[in-house]
Design goal:
Helix content: 10-25%
Order of helices and strands: HEEEEEEEEEEEE
Number of strands: 12
Oligomer: single chain
Radius of gyration: 23 Å
């Protein structure tokens, strides 16, 4: 069997799987619609307690004075997640399916590993490396290939392609990661030359979960 035939069958299988997931998500989804999560997960809890060994503040024996309430300034908007940050994602279809997903690296342009399978004229490959860590009771068993997209500064979105690049190994299809463990891999996109990418997105349920993680590029 030729490499082209194997690749064609692999593509057909992935498209069929994506179609079945779409139908399932449509039938089971009863939430209010998709939401985009741009807040990075904190790696360490911030504490306001005094440092160990610091002298205790002496008790004030004077009665507390009544002070007028002070109006606090509005909390500054949190910066959006960027490459290197982790976003906690959850499934729409299964409560036990949750994962911490990190956009680790963006390689633009990325060179194909096969001289006969290259980007179309006027286009080039971009490879984004993700790390996935299931945090719920269930293992991650999905196709990351179908779960990501990149968006340019004009709002145009680009879906993934099955190309492999020299940026690094792509995710296997499906990818199986036990709860608590981590897995890494690249997802590849084909975009027009001159495109300025602005964001990358990822979601569970093979890309059909209501919650979508989004990282700012640049």
């Amino acid at each position: 069997m030729s490499a082209t035939t194997r690749r064609t069958r692999r593509t057909a299988a992935l498209l069929l799987g994506a179609t079945l997931v779409t139908l399932t998500a449509t039938a089971c989804n009863s939430t209010g619609g998709p939401s985009v999560s741009t807040e990075a997960k904190q790696t360490a809890a911030a504490t306001s307690a005094p440092a160990a060994g610091a002298p205790a503040k002496p008790a004030d024996s004077k009665p507390a004075e009544s002070k007028p309430a002070e109006s606090k300034p509005a909390e500054a908007a949190k910066a959006p997640a960027k490459v290197g940050d982790t976003i906690a994602l959850k499934s729409t279809l299964e409560k036990g399916n949750t994962a911490d997903v990190t956009a680790l690296k963006v390689v633009d342009p990325a060179q194909s590993t096969n001289e006969y399978l290259t980007a179309a004229d006027g286009k080039h490959y971009v490879a984004v490396q993700f790390q996935i860590k299931p945090t719920g009771a269930k293992a991650y068993s999905e196709a990351p290939w179908s779960a990501a997209k990149v968006i340019d500064d004009q709002g145009q979105a680009y879906g993934p392609t099955l190309a492999d690049t020299k940026a690094g190994p792509s995710f296997q299809t499906p990818t199986n990661i036990a709860s608590g463990e981590t897995g890494k891999g690249f997802v590849v996109f084909e975009v027009p030359n001159g495109t300025k990418l602005d964001k990358v997105q990822f979601s569970l349920d093979n890309g059909f979960a209501d919650q979508v993680g989004q990282w700012k590029l640049g």
